[in-house]
Structures are given as C-alpha cells and as structure tokens.
C-alpha cells in the first residue's frame, strides 16, 4: 500500500511522458520549476532572456524526453537543457551587459519571519544594495564563467554534476569557477566581508569541490518566472 501511495520519481514521470501521459511532464516541471528558473535567471542576468531560455529549454526537454538514457539524474538532464538554451541565447545576442532587474523584484520575494518580528529598514536597504552589486558583478563575467559559478557556488552542484550540465570536462568547470571567483573578489572587494567565506576568492574556491559558501546574493527574484510567463511556462507545450 505504501508503494502505491508514494509519489512517482522524476524518472517515472519522464518515462510516463514518453509513454503518452499528458500530465506527467507538467508535474515533473512543476516539481523543479523554481530551481530551473533561478538558474536560468542567474545565468542570463536578465529576466526576459531567462524566461525565453527557460521556455525554449522546456520545449526541447518535452520533445527530446525519449533521448534520456539515465546516465545522469533527471534534474541534471533538465538543467543541462535549460542552461544550454540560455547560453545559446546569450551567444546569439552577444549579451554582455549587467542590466539591473526591476526594482520591485526583491520586494516580491517571500520574507521568512515570525509574527512580531520587525525588519530593520536600514538592514533591508543594505541587503538590497548588496544583491544589486552582486548581480552587476555577475554580469561582468563571461557566459561560460557565470554559468559555472552559478551552478557550483549558488546552486550547490558538484563539479562533476556541473560538467555534465555544461557538457565539458571537470577541469574546465574548475578553471571557469576559479577565474570567476577571482574576478568577483576584485569586483566585490568593497562589499564583501573579508572575515567570512565569500566563495569568490582563492581561499574559498578550492577547485576540487564546492566552497563552503558564496556571496550573500539572496534571491534574485521571486520563486518562479515573471508574472507574464507564469501561465505559460509551467504548462507542457503543445507539440504538433
């Protein structure tokens, strides 16, 4: 009875989609929607480009589900498709700008606090400014370096998993992360506390694994695509 009531695994849902289940892919995507969106946004550093990349990645995954062979976790497979779609968009458009997100983005992020807790406006202002500076610094990185450091330092993927997602050697991931951290350490020298691990400097970026922590970037947006995309992205696309 317990096994009958347990939720299907990601692999089960993908297999059901391939077999013709109309709702399986939507269920799978809804399960990982927040994290996929966060990765797309941080990789693109622009909400519109990220939404387009996520949508294209979703359609590609929907159509190519039959090519999944189980060599990696389904989440790794999904991230690989979405990140590649985002990188393709960035390369095609030659996007190299650090464009700030809408001013109300962080205001939409859920704030975890208990009843009676008060938020110090000064602290909130400093945190908002800090996140904006980190976003701008990320925008100064190359697409490849940004994708690597976002996956490893911000999303917590291992170097091996990131290499699978980016379809490159582990040594390449380590090199990109190392260069990204070195550049971020310079760009953020005035805002990062040197007494705490930053994930952006050599001391915190040992190349054989993930750093203990990264810069305090907070959430770059609310959890999920922009409102204009909310009705379209989570749904499985219509395929002719």
TrEMBL record:
<dbReference type="InterPro" id="IPR013325">
    <property type="entry name" value="RNA_pol_sigma_r2"/>
</dbReference>
<feature type="domain" description="RNA polymerase sigma-70 region 2">
    <location>
        <begin position="28"/>
        <end position="94"/>
    </location>
</feature>
<dbReference type="InterPro" id="IPR014284">
    <property type="entry name" value="RNA_pol_sigma-70_dom"/>
</dbReference>
<dbReference type="InterPro" id="IPR036388">
    <property type="entry name" value="WH-like_DNA-bd_sf"/>
</dbReference>
<keyword id="KW-0238">DNA-binding</keyword>
<feature type="domain" description="RNA polymerase sigma factor 70 region 4 type 2">
    <location>
        <begin position="133"/>
        <end position="184"/>
    </location>
</feature>
<keyword id="KW-0731">Sigma factor</keyword>
<dbReference type="GO" id="GO:0003677">
    <property type="term" value="F:DNA binding"/>
</dbReference>
<feature type="region of interest" description="Disordered">
    <location>
        <begin position="199"/>
        <end position="240"/>
    </location>
</feature>
<dbReference type="InterPro" id="IPR039425">
    <property type="entry name" value="RNA_pol_sigma-70-like"/>
</dbReference>
<protein>
    <submittedName>
        <fullName>RNA polymerase sigma-70 factor (ECF subfamily)</fullName>
    </submittedName>
</protein>
<comment type="similarity">
    <text>Belongs to the sigma-70 factor family. ECF subfamily.</text>
</comment>
<keyword id="KW-0804">Transcription</keyword>
<dbReference type="Pfam" id="PF04542">
    <property type="entry name" value="Sigma70_r2"/>
</dbReference>
<dbReference type="GO" id="GO:0006352">
    <property type="term" value="P:DNA-templated transcription initiation"/>
</dbReference>
<dbReference type="Pfam" id="PF08281">
    <property type="entry name" value="Sigma70_r4_2"/>
</dbReference>
<dbReference type="InterPro" id="IPR013249">
    <property type="entry name" value="RNA_pol_sigma70_r4_t2"/>
</dbReference>
<feature type="compositionally biased region" description="Low complexity">
    <location>
        <begin position="199"/>
        <end position="212"/>
    </location>
</feature>
<dbReference type="GO" id="GO:0016987">
    <property type="term" value="F:sigma factor activity"/>
</dbReference>
<keyword id="KW-0805">Transcription regulation</keyword>
<dbReference type="InterPro" id="IPR013324">
    <property type="entry name" value="RNA_pol_sigma_r3/r4-like"/>
</dbReference>
<dbReference type="InterPro" id="IPR007627">
    <property type="entry name" value="RNA_pol_sigma70_r2"/>
</dbReference>
């Amino acid at each position: 009875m317990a096994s009958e009531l347990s939720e299907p695994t990601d692999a089960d849902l993908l297999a059901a989609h391939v077999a013709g289940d109309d709702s399986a892919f939507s269920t799978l995507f809804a399960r990982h929607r927040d994290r996929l969106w966060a990765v797309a946004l941080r990789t693109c550093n622009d909400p519109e480009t990220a939404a387009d990349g996520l949508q294209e990645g979703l359609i590609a995954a929907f159509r190519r589900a039959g090519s999944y062979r189980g060599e990696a976790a389904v989440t790794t497979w999904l991230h690989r498709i979405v990140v590649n779609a985002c990188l393709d968009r960035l390369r095609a458009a030659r996007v190299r700008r650090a464009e700030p997100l809408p001013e109300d983005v962080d205001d939409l992020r859920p704030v975890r606090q208990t009843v009676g807790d008060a938020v110090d406006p000064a602290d909130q202002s400093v945190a908002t400014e800090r996140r904006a500076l980190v976003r701008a610094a990320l925008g100064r990185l190359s697409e490849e370096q940004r994708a690597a450091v976002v996956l490893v330092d911000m999303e917590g993927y291992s170097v091996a998993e990131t290499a699978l997602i980016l379809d490159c050697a582990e040594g390449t991931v380590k090199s990109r992360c190392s260069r990204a951290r070195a550049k971020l350490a310079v760009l953020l020298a005035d805002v990062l506390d040197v007494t705490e691990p930053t994930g952006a400097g050599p001391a915190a970026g040992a190349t054989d694994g993930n750093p203990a922590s990264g810069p305090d970037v907070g959430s770059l947006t609310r959890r999920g695509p922009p409102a204009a995309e909310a009705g379209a992205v989570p749904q499985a696309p219509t395929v002719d």
